[in-house]
Amino acid sequence: MRELSCKGRLVGPSLLALLLLPSCGISAAYHVRYLAELEPPARYNHPYDGPLDERVVSAVEVTTLCMSMGTSPFAAACSLVAEDGTCHIVLPNNGQAPVSTYRRHEIAHCNGWPPNHPRDQEQAEVLDQ
Ligand SMILES: [Zn+2]
User: What is the Cα–Cα distance from 26 to 41, expressed in whole angstroms?
Assistant: First the structure.
């Protein structure tokens, strides 16, 4: 029997597949919430208006690179706007969410989303359900 990986893309029909697979290490409900929490508020969710330096690396390398940028060793991904205005983002290619989800999240930080992740009212209501 073919096993489905938890690392598969979690968009569209594959989300349903995940819900039918309780053998994954984390629960589907937790995972869906995790993906929702990664989504930035609408006003920060747009392309960065400046030079972007993106690195997509393994989770281990994310830890090394992010620590060298001065962020938490527990960060799944990180971003830093340098003095010249370049936004450096480091994204895992084997994280719990698709690279595109981490990319939206970190670019939102480039756009000024504070590190403590304040949310739009509307988004907070969705997550509180
Ligand atoms: Zn963040």
Answer: 25
Domain membership flag for residue 6 = no
Residue 53's domain comprises 44-113
- Total domains in the chain come to 1
Q: What is the mean pLDDT of each run of 10 residues along the chain (129 residues)?
A: 46 44 64 92 96 97 94 90 97 96 97 92 70
- How far is the centre of ligand 1, averaged over its atoms, from the C-alpha of 6 (Å)? 22
CA of 63 to the centre of ligand 1 (A): 14
Judge whether 95 lies within some domain: yes
For residue 61, the tally of other CB atoms under 10 A from its CB is 14
The alpha carbon of 1 and the centre of ligand 1 are apart by a number of angstroms equal to 38
